[in-house]
Amino acid sequence: MLPVLLLCAHARAADIYLSYAADGTPLISDSPPQNLDAQTHADVYDDIDVWWRDVVPGQYLPNGVPMPNLDRIANLNQYDSAFTQASQKTGLPAELIKAVAVAESHMNPHAVSPAGARGLMQMVPSTAKRMGVTDTFDPWQSIAGGANYLAQQVKAFGSYELALAAYNAGPRAVTQYGGIPPYVETETYVARVIGLYELFRDTRPVLP
């Protein structure tokens, strides 16, 4: 199923929008805010950064997904020690955990989604509580909690792809469909994270 998934993601990678609430809180969503100019669909319109559209022309992640401009992420390597620690505790590759953080929040520890997911790893409060996270905006707690949750999904479903689908769409959806749910958002998400993971693993490893 994965080759089809990657072709779909390459052809129709969904946009991720970063906007800001009145108090300055970052808001991440896969739906354009109401004040986005649908005609110009500009990469930056007012305070909206369609950040996954900021790709490096002609370059792709190892699995064919357009290469995001990672140089725009000033703190890309800031939490590598936290990813390493989470890797040691869960057995997951540090590069996979980091890939989730990049795809989920653009490495913004203060990110809040319209659905209420928070922090680097974008956990909703109920999941964060189950993972022992008391402060979702604390990068170390967020990374540890998100890694623990992802490791649970790997154990439950047996592969990174299915675990990532569960992280995005929920374990129930993966069980219901017997694989990656046929949601464009989830298919795109899995492809992006796997592509980032392979990139980090092969050329930009996490350093303790």
**What number of domains?**
1
Tell me the number of strands. 6
**What is the 3D form?**
globular
Name the structural class. alpha+beta
Defining key terms:
208 residues, alpha+beta, Lysozyme, four-stranded antiparallel sheet, two-stranded antiparallel sheet, 11% strand, disordered N terminus
Question: Can you put this structure into words, describing what you see?
Answer:
This protein is of the alpha+beta class. It has one domain: Lysozyme. Helix content is 46%, strand content 11%. It contains eight helices and six strands; from the N terminus they run αββββββααααααα. It has helices at 2-12, 80-90, 94-105, 125-130, 139-157, 160-169, 171-177, 184-203; strands at residues 17-20, 26-29, 44-45, 48-50, 55-60, 66-68. The strands form two sheets. Strands 2-1-4-3 form a four-stranded antiparallel sheet, with no helix packed on it. A hairpin with a 5-residue loop joins strand 1 (17-20) and strand 2 (26-29). The longest helix has 20 residues, at 184-203.
